[in-house]
Amino acid sequence: MITCQLRGRLKQERQNETIAAVGDHVIVTALNDGSGVIEEVMPRENAFFRMAPSARGEFKQVLLANPDLVCLVFACDHPAPSFRMLDRFLVITEKQQIPQLIVANKIDLVGRSTAESMFSIYTGLGYQVVYTSVKEAIGIERLHDLISGKITAFSGPSGVGKSSLLNQIQPGLGLVIGDLKETQARKGKHTTVVRELFELKSGGFVADMPGLRSLSLWDTEPEELDAYFPELCDLVSDCQFSNCSHQSEPGCAVKRAVENGTVSPERYESYIRLRAGDG
Known about the structure:
Layout: E1 4-6, H1 8-13, E2 26-30, E3 36-41, E4 47-54, E5 57-65, E6 69-75, H2 83-96, E7 100-105, H3 112-118, H4 120-124, E8 129-131, H5 140-147, E9 151-155, H6 162-169, H7 173-185, E10 198-199, E11 205-208, H8 230-233, H9 253-259, H10 265-275
Parallel strand pairs: 1-3, 6-7, 6-9, 7-8, 9-11
Antiparallel strand pairs: 2-3, 4-5, 10-11
């Protein structure tokens, strides 16, 4: 491992986003003292990111660069799943063309059939959902197989059991991540959380993202949201008006699909709130 500093000009070139993130490919010059200087950050194939506040306004915080997969972990209960947050995650991964896997954890609290019913909207749209329980050792082997050999981000709200799942996938892994977070937490409330890649014995790496309380979209115009909702993207061409906002216009194919049950009211509500910039 080489401790590196960023070349000064890189800090000037990219001021509104993370310059070098976990997962980035970089060109480094080694120094005589054993440290190094990052000369270039190679173009990213994709990135998992969120918009964060900064003194200069909006800041693109890259959580993981070049991921092969994002595991979106939500608990079936304790805490109850926020499907609007899940929809935001899905929009971000759809826009960045990052494969995603929805993990419905803690199914022992509600039962398998209830869990499948809760997430049925997403399986109906073609999203892959894995149902897991650490307590009852359900779905762990399948989850392990799906992330092996990949660079995977584990993300979701706080308290959904990400570290517990990682401990089951590879004993001790979640404990290492938990200790790291605890050490960082003692440094102060506003300290930037350091993200790391942890190697899997079966091949690949995982990055455990911080528990997210909010997730704002970055550089996404309201009129382009249609493309990131799979159930809406093919409907918009049938609307009477080309600039239809799918709210009050006559001849709206999206509204018609909601009324006839083709599009779920919950997903439609998420779409409308995202268009309005409301979480």
